[in-house]
Amino acid sequence: LTQFGINIQPHVNTYRNIDVTAEALDRQTQMESSFEACDTINQQYRRKGLDDKFTKKQWIWTNKGKTTRHRGNDGQIVGFYDKFECVHDNTGKVDMILYPSDPNGSFENCWICYCQARYF
Whole-prediction pTM value? Predict the structure, then answer.
């Protein structure tokens, strides 16, 4: 269901391992909250007539967990409001997403992703 901002699609882990599901949803929430916090700061700066504080973001591959499928994305830098080109190292599946674990991306690229973003 992406209509509510979470990326739960039919998958064996979703139904059989609630811990994995909880962890994935927590990661999505953390990544979304970080992006939204920086966006809020940018909006506050604009209301004061200032330039955005956060103008860029960088993909950080962490090599954590059981999924290490985004090593090729490490270090990618895009504009703050631009999307990352997220490429699955094993399948080549490409998604254009705002941040790691973005629920608007595909299940195979965004579910249980341990990557992070750095905003600057």
Answer: 0.82
